[in-house]
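ok so I'm stuck.
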Amino acid sequence: QGQLVESGGGLVQPGGSLRVSCAASGFTFSSYVMRWYRQAPGKERELVAHITSTGGRTNYIDSVKGRFTISRDNAKNTVYLQMNSLKPEDTAVYYCNAALWTGASWADRYWGQGTQVTVSS
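replied:
not stuck anymore, here's the structure
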């Protein structure tokens, strides 16, 4: 039912910037928190950024704080991840996720197919 489609990935030089987008459909986007995950080759998937349903609060893993910014436009059913000062270790497939709070943890409900971000000289 619900669908998420990422776009905007590509090849970027270290220190460069890139913005990835995720378009949602088939569910009430404004009721969900949105998250960005990433998975590098040979590593497990990790949560990168989180934003509440209204965009009032955000959170990031320590390695991207000050460099990445998550935002959303509920009128467009879209969530974004602006990535600045990119490093080679940021290279990964970036996945969009829609989640709900169960009272004890976040329940991931919908996933996108991912978009490749490669940071290399």
